[in-house]
Amino acid sequence: MAFVRKKTKVYPWPVEVERPSETIPGEFEKTSFTGKFARLSRSELNKFEDEDEYSALSKILVGWEDVNEEDGTPISFSKTVLKEFAEDTDFVAAVLAAFKKFYANAQVGN
Asked: What is the pTM of this model?
C-alpha cells in the first residue's frame, strides 16, 4: 500500500476514564467517550512534555462525542469547557493515556 499524505490531522480515539467508585469501596468505575485528537508535528511532539496540562490538552483534544452531564445532557466541546475539565485529575489522566496509546499505535503502524 502506498503512503498517502492526508490533509486531515484529526482522528477519533477512545478515551477510558477511571474514577473511584462512589458505591463500591476500593473499586473503580470506568466510563468512556470518543476524543478527537490532533496529530502533532514532530517538533510539537518533542515540546509536548514541557506543556502545562491545559496547554497540552488544548493542543491535542479538539473535540469529543459522548460527554454528558449527570442528567444525560450532552456537553458540547469548547475551549472554555476544556479548561474546566483540565481541573479533573481523572479526565486529564485518561486523555493523556489515550493520546499516548494513539501515538504508540501510530508509530508501530508506520
From this structure: 0.83
Contacts of 53 (CB under 8 A, 6+ apart): 86, 92
First to last CA, the chain: 12
Strand order in the sheet with 10-20: 10-20, 28-38, 61-65
Q: Are 60 and 38 in contact (CB under 8 A)?
A: yes
Instruction: Share the mean pLDDT of the chain.
Output: 89
CB 54 within 8 A of CB 86: yes
Nearest to 36 by CA among 93, 78, 88, 89: 78
**Quick check: 64 and 36 in contact, CB under 8 A?**
yes
Q: How far apart are CA 64 and CA 12, in angstroms?
A: 8
Q: If we measure between CA atoms, which residue out of 80, 76, 93 comes closest to residue 36?
A: 76
pLDDT at 104 (0 to 100): 73
